[in-house]
Amino acid sequence: MAEGPAPSPAATAPAAGEWHASNGLIRPSRYPDGFSHYDYVNPDAPKGGTLRYSTPGTFDSFNPFPVRGTPAAGFAAFGGGIAYDTLLEQSTDEPGVAHALVAEALRYPADISSVTFRIDPKARFQDGLPITAEDVVWSFQTVTQLSPLYANYYRSVTAAEVTGDREVTFRFDQTGNRELPNIMGDLVVLPRHFWEGTDASGKKRDITQPTLEIPVGSGPYRVKSFQPGSVVEWERLPDYWAADKGPRKGRYNYDTIRYTYFRDQSASWEGYKRGGYQDYRLENSAGRWATGYVFPAVTDGRVKKGAFASETGEPMQGFVLNTRREKFADPRTRQAITLAYNFEEMNRSLFYGLYRRTTSYFQGTELASSGLPQGAELALLEPLRDKLPPEVFTTPYALPDYSKPNAERETLRRSFELLTAAGWRRQGSSLVDAQGKPFTIEFLAADPSASRVIDPFANQLRRLGILATTRVVDASQYQALVNNFEFDVITDLFAQSLSPGNEQRDFWSSRAASQPGSRNTPGIRNEAVDALIDKVIFAPDRESLVAATHALDRTLLWNWYVVPQYHNPEIWLSWWDKFGMPEKGPAYQGIDPYSWWVKGEVAVNTPADAAAASEPDPAAPKAPRP
After folding, report:
1. For 58, 190, 313, 547, which has the most beta carbons within 10 A of its beta carbon?
2. Quick one: which of 352, 236, 305 has its CA closest to 594?
3. CA separation (Å) from 608 to 262, 435, 550?
4. Once rounded to an integer, what is the mean pLDDT over residues 410-416?
5. DSSP string computed for 534-586
6. Among candidates 154, 175, 159, which has minimal Cα distance to 116?
7. Rounded distance, CA 500 to CA 6, Å?
8. What Å distances lie between residue 367 and 450, 491, 535, 542, 565, CA to CA?
9. DSSP state for residue 495 in the 8-state scheme
10. pLDDT class for 1, splitting at 50, 70, 90?
11. Mean pLDDT of all residues in 374-386
């Protein structure tokens, strides 16, 4: 990898401005610089015990940064996971706020043309060596070369320079981007000396390749042991350098974190009911939540459950239509497919009426568009009018309500009209293109249980003459196919913050559409979207940001790139009653399992637990009729 520059008196002067240990995008943090701990945590939480997770699929690497390989749980493709620290840490209980971690402070000039971080002199890697400004520069150069996600996130950075003994400055190709200081704080800090060294056999390490050599990190945990592809166990560092810093005090209390891999969600559910494989569960199945929590550990009180509120909004989850494929190129085709999705029937028959339809990429927040564009939003859209669907200006976005009388017949008729207008025609019972080629759609999934949600939609599409099938592959193959955009339709989830910015490029930009591993799974190449992304990124204040996000949301919706599914208005949580918990959780994040501690183990895998484990999974697909 390219070497980072050494400190030099000739370097441009560091950024002007005052040093601060926190930075807020929406409003200043309520915590003062150097705060001791978050309000909600127990700063005296006892250390010890084991936190157990289950995770689907397998793994083959402890290096999460190249596109190749499947990283082990605990590592993160973006951010540090539990292995590495970042310059700043995003707050758990305030939106748009980041606090000092590896960097003890940051500053930037009024025009935000650069940002300078001052490294905490106590910051250490797990082998005891100090974290230096040179490590930060090398980390930036390395991850932006390896990862499309990092490359897009930091594409506005023109230089990363050591500008002092413990200072590093990032210079930007633009001014006025309020988010850039915070997102530079998301930079993971890697040990250059480790990756440029040799392994136990004397072979030079190569950070561009997957590896199962346990790396040196900088975070609170390091890999202790593993069984390739099936188990990875992490141990807490008793001398972790940042244990008493404000964002970390009272958190990361477990001595051991153990991840066990299961072949699919149904097997994971069996393990949870048995006990000893997964200590808490964020439930994502209405069927399980409504009918599945009747196993012995629940009835005798060893497993608790509850619903919690969150202020983060809801992600866009939906069927992604891969517009790189010609059959999805026409927006009328995509709209027809979207209209065919009967959410109301699925919610009634599969989800016990517990879900709500998602109608925005920023659902549940002030950033979600509604009605018709007005004021500042309309002013942003007007110059792009010839690049936008006319409905953006004339029609409030709405999805069909199948609960109304005759809705299904009328909506499918409208779908067929759109398909006909897009050039498809009936040939017998099939829909074909101008050359007589049948319209086929293959849904790609990594878990057999996905068919429970796919099948009702596929049946609706078949009524239109579209041959819809499902292909289930293992987790590693699925990720490889998605990374290379080799699919017709997948289910994807686009989580947003309350302060959107540069990450929108990786979600929706034309550039990201052709970058393997990017989050632009729909393959969006749209000049209007690109222009509106810039309006979001360069919004000078909150009011401008809200208007720009409304315009971007509306444009994405009216181009029908994703068939919106549904969201849960609550956080459904169940847990084995082994944890001590703070009296309240972080309002913004909802729950913070790293602020819990082990108060004592409970009995698991009793004969009754083992018997219950094999009972049917309420979320599993029904067996086909003979």
Report:
1. 190
2. 236
3. 22, 61, 53
4. 97
5. HHHHT-SSHHHHHHHHHHHHHHHHHTT-EEE-EE-SSEEEEEETTEE--SS--
6. 159
7. 34
8. 30, 23, 14, 10, 19
9. -
10. very low
11. 98
